[in-house]
Design goal:
Two copies of one chain form a homodimer. By secondary structure, chain A is α/β, with parallel strands linked by helices. In chain A, 40% of the residues lie in helices and 13% in strands. In chain A, helix 2 packs parallel to helix 12 and helix 3 crosses helix 10.
Chain lengths: 408, 408
């Protein structure tokens, strides 16, 4: 057992700090904010690689492709043209217009460009919306499991994530009945993701409409994380904006557009929130990256679209292969993994402790995966997340290693 | 009088929102967060330019130079090399090492690279530190005037900015006696800036040492905004880290390194805060821009240093010209404008209302400047901020216009 692999041995995820006379009071309140276990997995995998081990990376929440060439070329042109200065806090008009066009073309919905704010990554957008929407003492309904930043942003507002456990039987998305049951007088809103990280499940048109109506009835805000839109393998993936123009949307150039390292995303807010959101944007980050914004314009070119759709096809093939292989080995998956690049797999056949399982797979079998405990509490020790953000060759190697490990 | 020029007519800066059944509770609490008046000045100046008016821009808080060529070229090389992915949340090792080297070379102080976190702009760093250091109900001592985001970040923590009025007679920096007088049992820290926006004044070695000792005695944290370091015109400009290794520092590649649109900065934190700061970084922004980080490495090349020092010389010449001219016209300035690219000027000879004064100068004389009311309350109607972020030709034109306007 290695000391580097710390997370397995932490009794809890509380951050321990060396006492010091200078230690400011506020650090104490941050005990609720957990480090991501996936980071520990990545660091440990890197350490093993330094020692010469071949590791199959199925933990990484980032496309393995470099950014598409037309976007790279657009960035270089922007650099030559001197676009190295601050932009408007809400982003350059060209990009906001392109995004409005994207909503019209892809979803058939008219979104006024004034309602679209370009942000420094989806993280910047989510942080802004947390400050805009969540007050001290508020409750926010979220699924368990969910992307871990979501509950952390809520906790940073001194508010409470109100967890709605979601299971395979319900495609890992909540019902109105569940939301109703988990809500109380403190509840201010509902934050969902479609497609979801870690489960890859989507909210269909009917589910979105039901939840939207319920939110309207209860005067709750509705926020939908759509950052994996475009990386979906179902025919119909509605944006919540097609159904509810009072909803808040977070999106990103990281995943479908393959621009992780550029740190660029966007949010869509209802009319009445535009001014306040813009003021927060000025305060929080002055402007998103000028270079990334000019580069992102090329994301809407036909040449880029062809590359991105080809990559989506690659992800689909990897999904097909990985899902079939994992099922064969004995993992239990959702009926259909619908989007993103994750498979959330039930490991009950092999282990009752997902952290121990991930530790064992990495240390003894060279396969890096993320324990369910990164994403919540509900059955978190019974699930792991596989990311298919690596080549088919590596996926095949990983599957072969898992097969040998689990059927020895 | 134009309706576009809204800020002049706002009774207060409260953000008014159209009532709506979907309006979430939290928006109400944001009433304390003010929009920046400088934004309104910039928008109005742009609108006048569209109509064909020549405007002299002395409102812009951003160097007018494009990013230096070696940095641009480094960015292009990074793009070609495929550095388009997430990096570690604290930044790439090469850049953290370069920054550690910068502290050793420029300040003669050893700063472990682990204590340096690269951030998405100084804004990202300041936001992170606010979350790290400031709890609900805390008080934070800051100067009045100060950079407006500072009080906004404190207010977003449901904490109180404790304003220490600073005047020309004290070089716009606080004394320990003043801090002592403004502190109370809620006070958790002191946030200062050297050089300061909007005043351009610096904290000398003795002042820093006094304030640091006082903070240590009182168990308060000390945070110093050093984002204008490098753009100073005094011989000795110490970093607080030379004096106090428990202090927190915010810095930026925007100003001296001329990389505003890239959104890259850094913070330095004491050892005991590194882990928690890193966890917040993961949550808040995953990683800073990979492209900007690789580009910034070129900021430490000799060829770049020569360009940046030449620009600093340009700023110094502009400062000399602008200060002399403004004094001649009848503005009252600090004895010595020591750093940044701002002159904070007392307009008592001409007006008792800085907002009206700025409105008049822009609308009737084509000179864009920022009213003191953007930076606080203390004598804010008696001061305006001039930025010398435009060419000498334009500065000369601006001065000529002011002379005609005020000595007609």
């Amino acid at each position: 057992m290695t000391t580097q692999f710390k997370w397995l041995f932490l009794q809890s995820n509380i951050v321990n700090l060396t006492p010091d006379m200078h230690q400011p009071a506020k650090l104490k309140e941050l005990e609720k904010i957990n480090p991501f276990r996936v980071m520990t997995v990545m660091h440990r995998a890197a350490a093993l690689e330094v020692k010469g081990r071949k590791i199959v990376h199925m933990e990484v929440g980032e496309p393995d492709f470099n950014t598409a060439t037309p976007i790279i070329e657009a960035a270089k042109n922007a650099l030559d043209a001197g676009f190295t200065h601050y932009t408007a806090a809400a982003g350059i008009d060209e990009l906001r217009n392109a995004l409005a066009g994207h909503y019209l073309e892809r979803y058939g919905v008219t979104v006024d460009k004034e309602r679209i704010l370009v942000t420094p990554g989806a993280s910047g957008g989510l942080s802004l919306l947390a400050n805009l929407l969540v007050g001290e003492g508020d409750g926010v309904l979220i699924t368990d499991p969910a992307y871990p930043c979501v509950r952390n942003f809520i906790q940073l507002m001194n508010a409470s994530p109100q967890l709605v456990p979601v299971d395979r039987s319900q495609n890992f998305q909540p019902t109105v009945q569940q939301l109703e049951g988990a809500a109380d007088s403190s509840t201010c809103g509902v934050w969902l993701a479609s497609p979801s990280n870690p489960t890859g499940s989507v909210l269909d048109r009917e589910a979105l409409a039901d939840i939207s109506s319920w939110c309207t009835d209860k005067s709750l805000h509705l926020l939908v994380d759509e950052i994996y839109h475009g990386l979906h393998y179902v025919d119909d993936l509605p944006s919540v904006l097609e159904i509810d123009d009072s909803a808040f949307v977070v999106n990103s150039f990281s995943k479908y557009f393959g621009m992780t390292g550029w740190r660029l995303g966007w949010i869509v807010v209802p009319d009445y929130a535009v001014d306040t959101a813009s003021i927060l944007a000025q305060n929080f980050y002055i402007s998103p990256s000028s270079i990334a914004q000019h580069a992102a314009l090329a994301g809407f070119m036909e040449a880029t679209r062809l590359i991105l759709e080809q990559r989506r096809q690659n992800f689909r093939e990897r999904r097909d292969f990985l899902c079939a292989s994992l099922r064969e080995i004995g993992f239990v998956l959702a009926e259909e993994v619908q989007g993103a690049f994750y498979v959330y797999a039930d490991i009950s056949a092999f282990s009752e402790n997902s952290e121990q399982f991930c530790h064992d797979m990495l240390e003894n079998h060279g396969v890096a995966i993320t324990p369910g405990t990164d994403f919540g509490d509900f059955k978190a020790r019974q699930f792991v997340r596989f990311a298919y953000t690596t080549s088919m060759d590596d996926l095949a190697l990983g599957v072969e290693r898992l097969r040998r490990a689990l059927h020895a």
